[in-house]
Amino acid sequence: MAFPNKRPKEEAREEGKKPDWVIRARQSPGSEHFMTAGVAWNVKVNSKDALSVKLNALPVNFDGSLLILEPLPD
After folding, report:
1. Where are the domains of the chain?
2. Checking CA distances to 31, which of 1, 39, 60, 65 falls within 20 to 30 Å?
């Protein structure tokens, strides 16, 4: 499958805007403990709803599963 050279036009994120979602992953397969692996923002891409994702880390032995959750209140 070929990917186009140009990215779809994305709605720009405001500098310093708090993320709409928090991305978490198990620290190891079968573990009850989760780590924060990144964040995501709601965006519009070509007039369609989408998520812009920023992953900061992945746990050792990552199995490919992530949870996208609402952030905890301040």
Report:
1. 21-69
2. 39
